[in-house]
Specification:
Number of helices: 7
CATH topology of the largest domain: Immunoglobulin-like
Largest sheet: 8 strands, mixed
Strand content: 25-35%
CATH architecture of the largest domain: Sandwich
Structural class: alpha+beta
Radius of gyration: 32 Å
Order of helices and strands: HEEEEEEEEEEEEEEEEHHHHHH
Helix content: 40-55%
Oligomer: single chain
Strand order of the largest sheet: 8-7-10-5-4-12-15-14
Number of domains: 2
């Protein structure tokens, strides 16, 4: 392997790396463009992130000057079922869900005089639907009026120390996360019980929310519980839906880091070629076509991931790239070298390297371990290589 050949291989590596950077930019632009256009559409079709706020109650004093007095909730007993339903649009997956809400509330007239109390309820969002919606006060259903943009309210006369029970039930649809707010600002909460049942395993608590007091494993999900006897808090309660691996960002990230895998592959190929005596049979143009075969994996994956399942797209792209490289080296050198050395190296540095990006948070560790293992193997294989002879164009001689 002469120095001019090494310089040519480095130049080819730089050109292929530039092509990967362009592909990463194009894929990122496609993701951003279509993501910005499709997210509002998904929200219109399915519903936005829902935030349910507790109902409120108030009354107007009878003595002049009159003023409005807010009534604190005496108790809250809420049951929520969340059913996950993924939707794919373009290069992105959206975590949509169906929510069944059943909330029972109690307000008490704490005065020693009768009052006329108004109970108000606001919908969690405007741009969605509410199936089987019911708003009941003391068992009497409050019929909705023509304009529901400001919610519903019911006025009821209460005797001294009398309580009023409100119940709200509905089925709705949302996206990304579901939240429950105790009220606006810092709120005093009494006798609060909320149980959320999910049909999915992976979840998170959104930023600015309180984690559950209890967590019980169900057959297909979790039963999360929040129970407080007395609480003063400005936080809310929430459950964030699990996110699928996003094809667009994944393809863009894989393309961005692809030069690392090609660098490993070219390095190993040069070293193995020198050790096996095939270095002079691999011209820089051969490396050019090998780089193109590597690039074909990411190019095909980037444009196939929004058409089929991401796992299928990965398998197809990997098989195509492996077939290109192995059949090419089999004809250039021999089939044994193509299958045992080059094929294994490509599987390690392209397929497994790229598959590591499916496991967010572990990619760096996997790449580091792979690099160290590769270094160790190459060091052992080349310990007896006469590098002066290799770089002068002669076959490597090993002391056996």
């Amino acid at each position: 392997m002469s120095i001019p050949r090494l310089i040519a291989i480095v130049f080819i590596f730089a050109c292929v790396s530039f092509a990967w950077l362009v592909l990463a930019g194009v894929t990122g632009a496609r993701t951003s463009q279509f993501g910005g256009e499709l997210r509002p559409r998904v929200g219109e079709l399915w519903g936005p992130a829902l935030t349910q706020t507790a109902p409120t109650a108030s009354f107007v004093t009878s003595e002049a000057p009159t003023h409005t007095v807010s009534v604190q909730l005496d108790s809250s007993d809420i049951k929520v079922n969340l059913d996950l339903d993924y939707r794919q649009k373009g290069l992105l997956w959206y975590s949509t869900y169906t929510v069944d809400f059943d909330g029972k509330y109690k307000f008490i007239n704490s005065l020693d005089q009768p009052v006329t109390m108004t109970v108000e309820y606001n919908f969690p969002a405007r741009d969605t639907l509410y199936d089987n919606f019911k708003f009941e006060i003391n068992g009497t259903r409050v019929l909705p009026e023509s304009d529901l943009s400001r919610g519903l309210n019911k006025t009821i006369a209460l005797r001294p120390r009398e309580s009023v029970n409100a119940q709200i039930t509905y089925r709705s649809r949302g996206m990304d996360d579901w939240r429950y707010k105790f009220g606006s600002g810092i709120t005093n909460v009494k006798d609060f019980n909320l149980v959320v049942t999910t049909d999915f395993r992976d979840f998170d608590f959104p930023q600015g929310t309180i984690s559950s007091s209890t967590k019980e494993t169900m057959e297909n999900g979790w039963r999360l519980g929040w129970k407080f006897d007395s609480l003063v808090a400005g936080f809310s309660i929430g459950v964030k839906m699990p996110q699928k691996t996003q094809p667009g960002p994944l393809a863009s990230t894989m393309s961005l880091f692809a030069p690392v895998s090609l660098l490993f592959f070219f390095t190993v190929l040069v070293i193995i070629g020198a050790v096996r005596g095939h270095a002079e049979r691999l011209h820089p143009m051969h490396y050019f076509f090998l780089g193109g075969a590597f690039f074909s994996f990411h190019l095909l994956f980037a444009y196939l991931a929004d058409q089929v399942a991401i796992e299928i797209a990965f398998i197809i792209s990997a098989l195509v790239s492996l077939l290109l490289v192995i059949t090419y080296i089999g004809r250039v050198v021999n089939w044994r070298f193509a299958l045992r050395e080059v094929g294994v190296a490509q599987f390690l540095f392209l397929v497994l390297f790229s598959y590591a990006f499916f496991f967010e948070g572990y990619t760096g560790l996997v790449i580091t371990i792979g690099a160290i293992v590769t270094l160790a193997v190459m060091m052992q294989m080349t310990a007896k290589v006469e590098w002066d002879g290799v770089f002068k164009g002669r076959n490597a001689k090993r002391d056996t």
